[in-house]
Design goal:
mainly alpha
Length: 188
Amino acid sequence: MSQTTGNGASSMPPIDDDDVPIRRPAMDEIEPPTPVSMAAMPPPRPPSSSSTGSYGGSSGMSGSYGSNNRYSSSGPQDPAVAMAQAEIDRTVVNQQLKIQEEHWVKAYWRPAMGWLYMLICFMDFVMFPAVAMFLPALLKGFGVTMQYTAWQSLSLSNGGLIHIAFGAILGVAAWSRGQEKITGTNIR
């Protein structure tokens, strides 16, 4: 199927660009399936008690699907098995509830802090200086004279304390999230 080059290495087959793309219908163009009522379904067959079933032949399997089918047993289920399954189900539900109990603010505060810091830096170092630079030229076209005033960064006032604070918060958050991923637990 694949072509080989002169040195024996295989390469991809050539691409056929003449193919017409197949149009797939949108979801609103597809008719919904018709529901099947339970009355229209045939009743299930009872298990056969003969020593040979339709698939058993002389293999000794009983019933049409074999004797080890758990849905074809006519007797009651063992109470110990039912209790063990109920305990497993309860444990699974409790674990799912613990996962769902985490509030969205708790789950997304780290990315929100990162996006907020990026927005602060973008506005203070890119957007506001550009507005301060181009606003006098823009207003001159409307007949308004305005003197150019250089932009002074708001976040660098007070010694840039906001950058130090965000650096500490985001650094500790990234480190603690890394530790959570390594151990597979949530550090509270």
